Amino acid sequence: MFMKSVGFLLILLLPFTYLSAQEDTSSLLSSIEGGDSGPNYTTASFKSNRIINLHSIENTAPGVLDFTISHRFGSVKNGVYDIFGLDAAQMRLGFDFGLSDRLAVGVGRSNNQKIIDGYAKYKVLRQRNPKGEMPVSLSVVLGMGISTQRFSDPNRNNLFSSRLYYNSQLLLARKFSEGFTLQLTPTWIHRNLVATSAETNDVIAFGVGARQKITKRLSLNAEFIYVLPDQLGSQYTNSASIGVDIETGGHVFQLHFTNSQGMNEKTFVTETSDKWSDFAVHFGFNLSRVFTLWSPAGASQW
Amino acid sequence: MNLIKILSLLYISTFFASFSLHGQSKYFTRDGNITFNADSPLEKVQAVNNKVNTVIERSTGKIEFSALIKSFMFEKALMQEHFNENYLESDKYPKATFKGKFTNLKDINFDKNGTYNVVAEGILNMHGVDKKITVSGPLKINGNNLNLAADFKVNVSDFNIEIPSLVKDKISKVVSIKVQANYKAL
Lengths: 302, 186
Description:
- Chain A is mainly beta.
- Chain A has two helices and twelve strands, in the order αβββββββββββαβ.
- By secondary structure, chain B is α+β, with helices and mostly antiparallel strands.
- The N and C termini of chain B lie far apart (44 Å).
- Chains A and B meet through helix 1 of A and helix 1, strand 1, strand 2, strand 3 and strand 4 of B.
């Protein structure tokens, strides 16, 4: 009898539960939630496609041409005599171009050794937030360079292949917070010709770079490239650089101090001879300007 | 005896009320369209979002929108990055929402095809700031399909969005926003 009346009471209460269920949906949008959006890829891990010298995980956006003028001045060590290195600049002109969401290519020319370098950078994994389905981004960089300088001894049997080097890098990066990004960059450089038999043609190095945003438009960047021992001549050392990125609308200014004067992988990884411990550092900048050649489909039509 | 009568009346009315509430219809779409324009004489600043969620509830006249900030597409990739990073701060404030009500619900007959001029009043939430706005526009009813179009203007400063002095001539301080959505029955 008791059970019966409880059951009856429950049936009586049934419509009220319906009512309360209705009132619970305080937001209409909750009724269509789920199909909310596509994957939420992490963006702007770095402000530029270079950390300082190293490639960053950022690609030039599809349809965009990024023109970069880079300088590394002479060593600040000589002081006022050559105004802290400004008399002896090395330069690189770079053109980076985004082909798709994942693929970017670029070419550049440095005055040092008249090297023309080219690369392709492909995003294999892309970090996704906020649920962390993909905690890291991974890109592959494949590049090569050619020295177009005249051979120092034209009477020797010079091979064209001696002009070439190849670089292969993995970029493994994670944007830990809005401000902080860390990137690990294992690097393999193959030089067809080396200066002495004491040096190896293949050089394995391990780069690490990071940035910390200071304000919305200013970040502090640093990178260090450790070359595994017994590969380079004793005059060479590891590359270490620190600098800031300043973003002003269409430009990014990267200003930095580095002990590497070269701006392509062969020169800054395998031919860095100045040491921070001797204060033999170089002031330098990368100045980037973007030009939109085409816009993604579906972009603004007012 | 009287008590039982009242109770059963209450019960029956609630029963039907709950059914009618349950059967109330809503209209929705997940690909509504929001375009904004903050052009200045120096720079074209426009973007479009074609993945806007929106729902209308016919019995109450409630209308809601939700747009992911990252889904606004610009012609210039760098402008889009700065929009997310520096202006709307989409990592902190991923969505913009509007939650409001038709103030002239009684003039709208959802069962009769035609074009009704509707006025919606509610809260626009963007960049973490709530602001009350009133928007009007034509609502076309065609069976179970609704089409809503509206445009309005907002002041950038009302939403705590800072325009640095370096680019202040390049971005309009008043942003024009156009909304367009084709709803179907939920």
